[in-house]
Specification:
This protein is of the alpha/beta class. The chain is 41% helix and 13% strand. It has helices at 13-17, 21-29, 34-41, 48-59, 104-114, 128-132, 148-161, 179-184, 213-221, 228-237, 250-258, 280-291, 306-314, 324-355, 361-364, and strands at residues 60-63, 77-79, 82-84, 88-90, 118-120, 138-142, 165-169, 242-247, 263-266, 296-299, 319-322, 368-371.
């Protein structure tokens, strides 16, 4: 299968005509094979939560402040104690080589150039050493494997490679039932593999009608018994900052803060795990309150603009993770496409900060919000 990316038709679209992330997504859709497009875009079940993420973000209305001097307006902030150009990190996404021939290093270079962290997945299609080798700040996302020894070996490998944090994903005892993949009988092409899981050929490559080969592979590899004891073992094992990704309940946020983690990510996995789960942005305020300042609180799922970043900040987040838009950028134009995605987010965030009367990210976290009708919904005021 040929790879989209820098050599794909229309690859210059993000650089020349993309003025919003939706433009980049359309450019990617024009070049991606339908099965791959569905693998990236799809959610679980009836995709109720996938849609709810976007609708819930659109209901968050920020109350701007007036008569503020915003002649000097900066998006700069910190995440996990390190300076960032904006409070955004690239979310972990599996198998970048599905959409871009170079894979994860292309997106990691773009993130480094943009001054934001890149999160490499356990299921990345390029080894962590090659990803950290391009420079910039790299976090390592960890799935807890059935073999605990192999899991902890991966953490040590990430440390040795120069990763700046470990992010344990806690909402995937197994992969949610993603019906687009099931209907497509989705399987990985032979030249794309999970580089950290050793086998050159795996269940993920064995196409079967009416089933997702990727889901079958993760069911074999991932442990369904990840608990707070696993978190404690990981905390004791690594010297790196520890992030828990996939919390929605305020009780879990409180326990995470009390357990000594450095950050949590309020996340429903982009609508790809439990269909019917609460939208991440709706769960965010209670999680922030429950964490009580004991750790940083990040959010993902549905972020598609700098305005969305502002919304999350106003509801108490320290920052956000962005996943699918980065993949769309990589598919449309490789590294240049990802650079354009991050450039747009930065430009939009600065615009949103200034127009809301904020000179910086700290000001944004003091804004008030109200819940309004979903923009464009029946009865909404234009």
């Amino acid at each position: 299968m040929g790879r989209p990316g820098a050599d794909a038709p229309g690859a210059d679209a993000p650089g020349g005509t993309a003025h919003a992330l939706a433009d980049v997504e359309r450019a990617a859709a024009a070049v991606l094979p339908p099965g791959v497009r569905d693998f990236v875009a799809g959610g679980s079940g009836a995709e109720t939560t996938l849609r709810a993420n976007r609708a819930a973000l659109d209901r968050v209305c920020v109350v701007p402040r007036a008569l503020r001097d915003v002649s000097s307006c900066t998006t700069e902030s910190t995440l996990l104690g390190r300076p960032v150009a904006m409070p955004v990190a690239v979310a972990p996404v599996a198998y970048h080589r599905l959409v871009c021939a170079e894979g994860e290093p292309a997106a990691a270079r773009a993130a480094g150039a943009a001054g934001v962290p890149f999160t490499a997945s356990t299921l990345s299609s390029v080894p962590i050493e090659e990803i950290t080798g391009v420079g910039g700040t790299v976090w390592f996302q960890l799935y807890w494997l059935r073999d605990t020894g192999r899991t902890l070996d991966l953490v040590r490998r990430a440390e040795d490679a120069g990763c700046a944090a470990v992010m344990l994903t806690v909402d995937v005892p197994w992969m949610g039932r993603r019906l687009r993949d099931v209907r497509n009988g989705f399987a990985l092409p032979q030249d794309v593999r999970a580089a950290h899981l050793a086998a050159a050929e795996s269940t993920a490559h064995r196409r079967r009608g009416g089933a997702s080969a990727v889901a079958a592979h993760t069911a074999e590899a991932f442990s369904p018994a990840v608990t707070w004891e696993s978190v404690a073992a990981l905390r004791a094992h690594t010297r790196l900052p520890l992030v828990l990704k996939g919390l929605l309940d305020a009780r879990d946020a409180r326990r995470a803060a009390e357990s000594g983690v450095d950050a949590i990510v309020v996340s429903n996995h982009g609508g790809r795990q439990l269909d019917g789960a609460v939208a991440s942005i709706d769960a965010l305020p209670d999680a922030v309150a429950a964490a009580g300042g004991g750790c940083e609180v990040l959010m993902d799922s549905g972020v598609r603009s700098g305005t969305d970043v502002l919304r999350a900040l106003a509801l108490g987040a320290h920052g956000v993770l962005v996943g699918r838009p980065v993949v769309w950028g990589a598919a449309a134009a490789g590294e240049a496409g990802v650079r354009r995605v991050l450039e747009l987010l930065g430009d939009e965030l600065r615009d949103s900060l200034g127009l809301s009367g904020c000179t910086d990210v700290a000001d944004a976290r003091e804004l008030r919000t109200v819940r309004g009708a979903t923009v464009g919904a029946p009865g909404a005021v234009p």
